[in-house]
User: Which sequence fits this backbone?
């Protein structure tokens, strides 16, 4: 017996020494030494209507200012007429009877024909039109004097007609009617316009002038841009944080996000100015408003569609502290708290409850299974804690198992953070929301940030983060390979600490190349195309290779946290019986890596290696070259319980191997 052990030991040592000699570095994985459990929610997404993320983005409406409610009621519209006649076009306001949607337009015509009088909408930096696709035009109208026909045309950038329909308003009378006409486009055009010209003699009121493509996500009328949603679905996110972000707070309290104003018929959803309209003097976006066509019902539905848990963030009775710092008096905080309670009922209540009934009437009698909610976004100071306590008491009293996320402010360190961290832990916060918009070096230097966090207290939600290549929120920031690898390195630290960090999301999510305010962003789009940044692929690879339990990974008895620029984490997936290794090489040299896998009987001889890499740190993806930095998959051969690969310079590597 003793003899066998010694000879086994000699063989083993020889084998190990051989590996060391050949490779220089040996990583030992103990696949049976289970560490943190990785939550299904671990890798999620953060959605905010910034950078034309919703209006002009995933909300597929092509008409800008469709209900004439922008501050300038005709912004986005151009009136063309042969000769000026006073009163032909009037913007009327009925705010006493319709405060949510006060304005509409009144057209008066006499013997009108092509060229007499038309209204042209420029879209959101143009309209993306696809050849052969159906377009659905709709309008709300009220005939004051019959006789007007509406000719609907799509116009390309040369002024040519690329699709048309005719709408003859059918119903007379004092009430508003909705009517639609659909037609196909004959040409693809990224910057089309919608032209409506009037024929005949009469008077008509128009509102909610709308055009949607026929290929929305799940073919829902008035729905989402499918290519953009597909990119989210392809990430299989664990949760969706919504609606932000600073949008939650508003510049001042009247400009805050109020979910109750975002549900029900779209013509009754009261538009507000998007706070990003005026936030950055260097990136003004005067035509940025929130129509709430993407409201809370659509948000819950989207989360359900793509298998993500909803994670709404609600206003805590405080507006943005960088802007006005306006706070609701404590004596007037009840409506804010009631909004939170009612949102839970809207999501989960049965159809006999007040808000559950509204959800059911909107087409979703089943609950949305909401389990958590954030109170406040990037709020700080004692006034935040005071308000939080009121929310916490009311919500936990009614829903004891409901989980609450609290903000730790704008920064991951400093006095404000330290104060809140202490207070929130005293309050036994379920989740503390930490944000970091920092240079790439911060991310690599902070890979061990959570190694010494308390294990059995509040969990961490890394609710907003992105490596900033130049400086926080400056327009020079790029979504380059360096930032993506820095985030990947940092995320190995989040994964290693999955017992403390239960959720994480990159921010912001979307940006339109012609309408952004903030960079970097995960996904960039124009009117027809979308592409993932290197950072997108990092998020996607972590999410698709999540695993269920972290396992021990050591090199020279140390965690792999940046020695020679290498960062690593190892987990298993109990459901598929696979070992998953994630390795980031931030150095500019290829590095050999040998892996010795312990604690498994056997590994399948063929495994998979997915590599995200490039030639240099500055590389980016673009609309024209969307795959410069994108994952490449190959088969790898495992020898018994060992594996040797070369980690390319500047690379993120995911290795999967079946445990037998
Ligand atoms: O992600 C962009 C902004 O950054 C968010 O709205 C805000 O929460 C943070 O300051």
Assistant:
């Amino acid at each position: 017996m003793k003899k066998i052990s010694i000879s086994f030991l000699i063989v083993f040592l020889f084998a190990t020494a051989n590996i060391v000699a050949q490779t220089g570095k040996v990583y030992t994985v103990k696949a049976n030494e289970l560490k943190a459990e990785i939550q299904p929610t671990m890798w999620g997404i953060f959605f905010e209507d910034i950078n034309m993320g919703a209006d002009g983005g995933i909300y597929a409406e092509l008409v800008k200012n469709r209900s004439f409610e922008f501050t300038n009621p005709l912004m986005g519209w151009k009136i063309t007429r042969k000769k000026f006649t006073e009163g032909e076009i009037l913007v009327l306001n009925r705010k006493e009877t319709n405060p949510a949607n006060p304005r509409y337009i009144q057209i008066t015509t006499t013997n009108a024909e092509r060229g007499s009088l038309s209204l042209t909408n420029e879209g959101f930096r143009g309209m993306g039109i696809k050849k052969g696709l159906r377009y659905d035009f709709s309008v709300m109208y009220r005939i004051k004097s019959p006789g007007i026909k509406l000719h609907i045309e799509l116009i390309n950038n040369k002024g040519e007609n690329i699709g048309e329909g005719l709408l003859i308003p059918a119903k007379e009378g004092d009430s508003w009617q909705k009517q639609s006409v659909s037609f196909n486009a004959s040409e693809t055009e990224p910057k089309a316009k919608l032209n409506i010209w009037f024929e005949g003699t009469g008077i008509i009121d128009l509102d909610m002038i709308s055009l949607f493509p026929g290929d929305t996500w799940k073919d829902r009328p008035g729905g989402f841009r499918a290519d953009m949603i597909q990119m989210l679905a392809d990430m299989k996110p664990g949760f969706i944080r919504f609606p932000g972000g600073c949008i939650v707070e508003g510049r001042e309290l009247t400009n805050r996000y109020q979910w109750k104003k975002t549900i029900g018929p779209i013509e009754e959803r009261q538009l507000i100015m998007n706070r990003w309209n005026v936030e950055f003097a260097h990136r003004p976006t005067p035509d940025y408003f929130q129509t709430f066509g993407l409201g809370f019902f659509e948000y819950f539905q989207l989360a359900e569609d793509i298998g993500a848990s909803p994670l709404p963030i609600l206003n805590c009775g405080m507006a943005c502290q960088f802007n006005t710092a306006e706070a609701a008096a404590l004596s007037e905080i009840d409506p804010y708290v009631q909004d939170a309670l009612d949102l839970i009922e809207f999501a989960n209540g049965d159809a006999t409850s007040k808000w559950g009934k509204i959800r059911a009437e909107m087409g979703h009698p089943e609950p949305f299974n909401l389990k958590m909610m954030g109170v406040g976004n990037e709020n700080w100071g004692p006034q935040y804690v005071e308000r939080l306590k009121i929310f916490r008491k009311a919500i936990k009293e009614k829903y004891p198992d409901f989980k609450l996320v609290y903000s730790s402010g704008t920064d991951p360190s400093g006095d404000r953070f330290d104060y809140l961290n202490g207070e929130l832990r005293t309050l036994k916060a379920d989740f503390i929301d930490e944000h970091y918009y920092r240079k790439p070096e911060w991310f690599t230097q902070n890979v061990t940030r959570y190694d010494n966090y308390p294990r059995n207290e509040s969990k961490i939600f890394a609710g907003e983060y992105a490596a900033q290549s130049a400086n926080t929120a400056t327009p020079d920031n790029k979504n380059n390979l360096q930032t993506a690898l820095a985030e990947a390195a940092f995320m190995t630290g989040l994964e290693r600490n999955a017992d403390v960090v239960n959720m994480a999301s990159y921010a912001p999510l979307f940006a339109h190349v012609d309408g952004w305010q903030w960079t970097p962003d995960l996904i960039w789009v124009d009117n027809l195309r979308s592409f993932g940044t290197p950072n997108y692929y990092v998020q996607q690879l972590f999410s698709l290779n999540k695993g269920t339990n972290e396992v021990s990974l050591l090199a020279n008895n140390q965690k792999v946290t940046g020695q020679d620029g290498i960062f690593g984490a190892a987990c298993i997936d109990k459901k598929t019986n696979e070992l998953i290794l994630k390795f980031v090489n931030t150095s500019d040299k290829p590095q050999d890596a040998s892996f010795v896998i312990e604690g498994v009987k056997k590994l399948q001889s063929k495994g998979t290696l997915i590599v995200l890499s490039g030639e240099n740190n500055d590389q980016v993806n673009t609309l024209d070259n969307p795959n410069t930095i994108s994952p490449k998959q190959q088969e790898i051969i495992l020898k018994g319980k060992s594996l040797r690969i070369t980690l390319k310079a500047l690379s993120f590597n995911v290795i999967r191997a079946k445990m037998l």
Summary: The mean pLDDT is 95. Residues 48, 50, 244-246, 377-378, 410, 464, 507-508, 518 surround alpha-L-arabinofuranose (CB under 6 Å). DSSP finds eleven helices and 32 strands in the chain. The first helix runs from residue 2 to 23.
